[in-house]
Amino acid sequence: MAVKEATNAGIAAAGIDVRLCDIGEAIQEVMESHEVTLGNKTFPVKAVENLCGHSIGPYQIHAGKSVPIVKGGPETKMEEGELFAIETFGSTGNGRVFDAPDCSHYMKDFDKEDAPIRNPKARALLNEITNRFGTLAFCRRWIEDAFPRHIVPLRALVDVGMVTAYPPLNDINGCYVAQYEHTIFLHPSRKEVISRGQDY
């Protein structure tokens, strides 16, 4: 409930010429007004300070602007014609996540120019990724049939920056984390929540 209400607060605050820092402050205020009881213990819900929403571009999931979920973010303004993922993350832990060691999700870097790749298997894997996914995210199991031994070539692509790894994110052990998200488009005279269907 905390992340759903915080996301809706972010949507309500969003609009043309609205500063991103103001949206983050509105989200945090709503998120941290909640608490959750698990077993016999009550925990405050914290906004995860190092995660955020973002602008979206054609075939570019993270298009450059970040929508914070805590106060103190950038004073950059939203603009007409932009598309945003307003997403919030609440935690019963520290409210800060870190990368887990195992990674299964990746995405070709949108802005990276072609780099010289000496490893022929890595070059072949990059071609497969480009042809099948472009710059959209993919998971390792989707490439296992064509590249059963893909771990070393994939690591080589990550090392040269052609592909970015997106490992799972963890807060402290034993805590609970929830996420909620909607996508909005800023028309000249209104904002449209394009992901809000009948099930929301």
* Proportion in helices: 10-25%
SSE order, one letter for each helix or strand: HHEEEEEEEEHEHEEEE
Shape: globular
Structural class: alpha+beta
Mean pLDDT: 93
Low-confidence region ranges = none
Distance between the termini: 13 Å
Cα Rg: 19 Å
Strand content: 25-35%
Our count of helices gives 4
Task: Report the count of strand segments.
Answer: 13
How can the largest sheet be summarized?
6 strands, antiparallel
Structure described in brief:
The chain has about 200 residues and is an alpha+beta fold.
Task: Give keywords.
200 residues; alpha+beta; 6-stranded antiparallel beta sheet; globular
Topology:
Blueprint: H1 2-13, H2 20-31, E1 35-38, E2 41-44, E3 46-47, E4 52-56, E5 66-68, E6 83-91, E7 98-99, E8 105-108, H3 120-133, E9 138-139, H4 151-159, E10 163-165, E11 169-170, E12 177-186, E13 191-193
Antiparallel strand pairs: 1-2, 3-6, 4-5, 4-6, 6-12, 7-11, 8-9, 8-10, 12-13
Overview of the molecule:
By secondary structure, this protein is α+β, with helices and mostly antiparallel strands. It has four helices and 13 strands. It has helices at residues 2-13, 20-31, 120-133, 151-159; strands spanning 35-38, 41-44, 46-47, 52-56, 66-68, 83-91, 98-99, 105-108, 138-139, 163-165, 169-170, 177-186, 191-193. Strands 3, 4, 5, 6, 12 and 13 form a six-stranded antiparallel β-sheet that branches. The chain has a three-stranded antiparallel β-sheet with strand order 9-8-10. Helix 1 packs antiparallel against helix 2. The protein is globular. The two termini are 13 Å apart.
